[in-house]
Specification:
Layout: H1 2-24, H2 27-43, H3 54-57, H4 59-69, H5 83-94, H6 110-122, H7 124-139, H8 152-180, H9 195-204, E1 208-210, E2 216-218, H10 220-231, H11 244-266, H12 268-277, H13 280-283
Antiparallel strand pairs: 1-2
Helix pairs in contact: 5-12, 6-7, 6-8, 7-8, 8-10, 9-11, 10-11
Length: 294
């Protein structure tokens, strides 16, 4: 009898605990169970309850995704639909042969200017193009040049060194003067569509360029660069070609080179497609043209 009474008390305690847990269970579980049962009923053939459409089950996740996509601070890819990036890429393709940076709305820092200087002075074009100059000098040597400047590998080395030193001194002087006087080393294209007016603009830009703030100024850097390129040869050219007259002539030639570069930069949109048709940008390595303009 005592055992039965103990068992009855134990059973009553377990029942009370179970009822308390059931009462304390959140109603969300009940709703989830109801949803599961409804899903089971929908899958059965004798379903009596109407089944919710499948789109309603995904309504909340889809709504959350749409709301997240419409948030104002969502990051967007910089290279999709960005005309500036595509324009910069087209400019890089157009500049495959001659690195001719054209001015954009972004101002240049000292590091940007130094990148332009180092590539123009020591990059692949600066190393390879003097070889063509030296080859042309040997094919058509100056009549009064000594033999060591006209024949053999030594003559090629001297002519190559002269071409490289002239270009390097010109660009170094332009860079230092431009940094000191806050000149922008990039070319500014003409807004005219007349070829003659565009050519005149390019020639004028040889003597008048832009500052970092966008003002017109005398191109002191071009004058300094032409003078350095013209007078550097007086230190090593043979006798008769290292005098003041020849230095001034070489200075005028450097000015002519600057004018030709400006004309090439002015008409870059026209000859750039020809470069792409020849697939030259596929032949040249990526490091031929630096990505200084982003």
């Amino acid at each position: 009898m005592t055992a039965r009474t103990h068992r009855s008390k134990h059973l009553i305690c377990m029942t009370v605990i179970a009822l308390g847990l059931a009462a304390a269970h959140p109603p969300v579980v009940a709703s989830q169970e109801t949803k599961k049962e409804a899903d089971l009923n929908c899958t059965s053939s004798d379903a009596t309850l109407p089944c919710p459409p499948a789109a309603a089950a995904k309504e909340t996740p889809e709504t959350q995704r749409r709301q997240a996509a419409n948030l104002p601070d969502m990051p967007k890819a910089q290279d999709q639909g960005d005309p500036s990036s595509s324009a910069s890429h087209a400019q890089d393709q157009n500049s495959a042969l001659l690195f001719l940076p054209v001015k954009s709305s972004r101002s240049l820092s000292f590091g940007d200017k130094f990148t332009i200087y180092t590539h123009q002075t020591f990059g692949p074009p600066a190393v390879l193009f003097p070889a063509f100059t030296a080859g042309a000098g040997m094919a058509n040597p100056k009549s009064h040049y000594p033999r060591e400047w006209r024949e053999g590998a030594g003559a090629f080395g001297r002519l190559y060194g002269d071409a490289f030193a002239t270009a390097a001194s010109q660009r170094t002087a332009r860079f230092l003067t431009g940094v000191a006087l806050h000149e922008d080393p990039r070319y500014v294209r003409s807004t005219s569509t007349n070829p003659l007016m565009r050519t005149m603009h390019a020639l004028a830009f040889t003597f008048v360029d832009k500052t970092d703030s966008g003002r017109n100024t005398i191109a002191f850097s071009n004058f300094a660069g032409a003078a350095a390129g013209g007078f550097v040869g007086r230190a090593y050219l043979p006798r008769g070609y290292n005098d003041l007259t020849h230095a001034e002539q070489r200075m005028a030639i450097e000015f002519l080179h600057l004018a030709i570069q400006n004309i090439a930069a002015e008409f870059q949109p026209q000859w750039g497609p020809l470069v792409r048709k020849l697939h030259i940008q596929r032949i040249l390595p990526e490091w031929w043209v630096p990505q200084h303009e982003k």
